[in-house]
Design a protein that fits this description.
Layout: E1 2-5, H1 7-23, H2 27-40, H3 42-45, E2 51-52, E3 56-60, E4 66-73, E5 76-84, H4 89-97
Parallel strand pairs: 1-5
Antiparallel strand pairs: 2-3, 3-4, 4-5
Length: 98
C-alpha cells in the first residue's frame, strides 16, 4: 500500500501549519508531525473510517481538530483534503464537491 497526498491536501497542510505557527513558534512543525503520523496510520487502517460525502473516508486526527478525507483506490490511498473541523459544515461540503 502507498499513500499519495494530492496538491489540494498539501495546501491544506501548509495552511494549517501557518495558522499554528502564528499562534506559537514551533507549533506549526508539531502540527505537521502529528498530522503526518495520522496520515501514515492509513497504511494499516485505510478503509475502516466512516464514509462522508458519498465517496471519501474521513479520518479524525488525534491531536488537532482536523479531518483527513481520503479514498482507497487499489493499492493507493489518495488524500484529497485535510480540513479544520471547526469550519462551517456547509463550507466543508462545498469543498468536498470540488
Amino acid at each position: 500500500m502507498k499513500i499519495e497526498i494530492l496538491e489540494s491536501a498539501s495546501r491544506d497542510l501548509l495552511s494549517g501549519r501557518g495558522f499554528y505557527e502564528s499562534q506559537s513558534p514551533g507549533l506549526g512543525a508539531y502540527f505537521l508531525d502529528s498530522l503526518f503520523a495520522d496520515i501514515d496510520s492509513l497504511l494499516l487502517y485505510a478503509g475502516i473510517h466512516e464514509v462522508h460525502f458519498e465517496h471519501y473516508h474521513r479520518l479524525l486526527t488525534k491531536r488537532f481538530p482536523y479531518a483527513v478525507y481520503y479514498k482507497v483506490e487499489g493499492e493507493v490511498v489518495r488524500v484529497y483534503a485535510v480540513l479544520d473541523c471547526r469550519r462551517d459544515p456547509e463550507w466543508v461540503a462545498e469543498r468536498m464537491k470540488e
